[in-house]
Specification:
This protein is mainly α. 92% of the residues lie in helices and 0% in strands. The protein contains 2 helices and no strands.
Length: 53
Amino acid sequence: MRTFLAILQDDSGATAIEYGLIAALVSVAAISAFTTVGTKLSGVMLNTANKLK
């Protein structure tokens, strides 16, 4: 019974899960930001290339 109660009170893995969730959220935000910047940068480069012709 003591072992079971000790397992229920152990919260050492909770911090690792929280850090994992934060890392996933930062990754999703970074990917969406890079996609948006990449699309806009592609348009700028295409516009510049057309003006140089």
